[in-house]
Design goal:
- This protein is an alpha/beta fold.
- The chain has one domain: Uracil-DNA Glycosylase, subunit E, CATH 3.40.470.10.
- Helix content is 35%, strand content 17%.
- The protein contains 7 helices and 6 strands; from the N terminus they run ββααβαβααββαα.
- The protein has a 6-stranded mixed β-sheet with strand order 1-3-2-4-6-5.
- A hairpin with a 2-residue loop joins strand 5 and strand 6.
- It is globular.
- It binds iron/sulfur cluster.
């Protein structure tokens, strides 16, 4: 199930240029879920192509994981104005599409607090949640969820970089 091209299920449709749908290997068992498209993603229609996407690509490559071998998506498919966080209402509206994208996954990497909130209702500070594995229900199936830092947080914070690096290492055997 994918959103209609002119989906208007939440207010984010107002400012979008291009809806940003998942990229990568659709048969991969591992899906990285970010927060929301930013300016570059909104213009290109591809997730994680801006500054934080480039850092994610670099960290994946350094740990021997090809970006093309995983799936990458976001909690919402349309860019929030001014790059603000997506609201709970917007994430709820888009969640059926997110869950459909995760149907065949074995592991979901939740990048940052919005993804953790959307996927598992988690609201604790990231340093308390990062790399604490849990399971979530995806269409009646138990799927591994790994909360971790968003790459944007890794640009300036060593602790975040180390946390995300640990996550990438831990999912490598599943890729
Ligand atoms: S964010 Fe999701 S629910 Fe909202 S308009 Fe875009 S595709 Fe539809």
């Amino acid at each position: 199930m994918r959103p209609e091209k002119d989906c208007q299920l939440c207010s984010l449709h107002v400012g979008r240029t291009i809806m940003v749908l998942p990229c990568g290997d659709p048969s991969s068992k591992v899906c990285f879920v970010g927060e929301a498209p930013g300016e570059k993603e909104d213009l290109s229609g591809t997730p994680f192509v801006g500054r934080s996407g480039k850092l994610l690509d670099k960290m994946l490559a350094e740990e021997g994981v090809e970006r093309s071998s995983i799936r990458i998506t976001n909690t919402v498919k349309c860019r929030p104005p001014g790059n603000r966080d997506p609201t709970q209402v917007e994430m709820d509206a888009c969640r059926p599409f997110l869950l459909a994208e995760l149907q065949d996954c074995e592991a979901v990497v939740a990048l940052g607090r919005s993804a953790c909130r959307s996927l598992a209702g988690l609201t604790a500070p990231m340093k308390e949640m990062a790399n604490k594995r849990m399971s979530i229900d995806v269409g009646g199936r138990e799927v591994l969820l790994i909360p971790t830092y968003h790459p944007a947080a890794c640009i300036y914070r060593k602790e975040a970089r180390e946390g995300l690096r640990e996550t990438i290492r831990s999912i490598r055997p599943l890729v």
